[in-house]
Amino acid sequence: MVIRADIGVIGGSGFYSLLDEAEEVEVATPYGPPSDVVTVGRIGSRPVAFIPRHGRDHRFPPHRIPYRANLWALRSLGVRQVLAPSAVGSLKPELGPGAIVVPDQLVDRTSGRAQTYYDAGGAVHVSFADPYCPSGREVAVAAARAGEWQTADGGTLVVIEGPRFSTRAESQWFQRNGWTIVGMTGFPEAALARELALCYTSLSLVTDHDAGVEAGEGVTHEEVLAFFARNVARMRTLVSDTVQALPEERTCSCGSALDGIKLPFELP
Known about the structure:
alpha/beta
């Protein structure tokens, strides 16, 4: 039986219970295996494929996640729209723990991560001025507000290399630049999705204020995990509501990101 899905979710292990009629699928890619087997099922009437970003046992730190394999595996299964829930730190005093940010911009502060599929066979330059899908963002913002989250429509996600958290000076620098939230996994996910002509929408749950925003000892790994765990059921509802409201036919520009570009290989 051919298993297909048109929507992908890349998130934490707490999202497994999202799917009805779930089935695990092993997907091989030219970039090695994805973070874990892909779980394919349904949310309402929508077929959805789920990948635990860090692996179900959280074995991949942010800088070791097989990002290329994950996005390639999703496209191989027919996915064209991707939702990416994640935990982030806030750089704005008014955005405290429990807020949802649906960013519209991204700043890459990572180093050494494989961030393109097109590193051989000729140059492929893909537009990335607006990293996130406008249609997906609109749906996600509406779903978050309907769920009575404190919701930020837009903002800049700065992605750091990790696995360490920011120094206080780094956090204050990010804040002075006017950036909104800080995380470790939003890049190269968004860029790779664009290179595959996928829609990509980030659902960023604020779990803490980053080190330099307010006085204190700074965030710890245990605090982030504990806060996310306390909110995972509510996040599942938000992701489910967003999935069911996504358009069945794409009218955004994400699907035409590769139009007119000669690719060195065929996409799945």
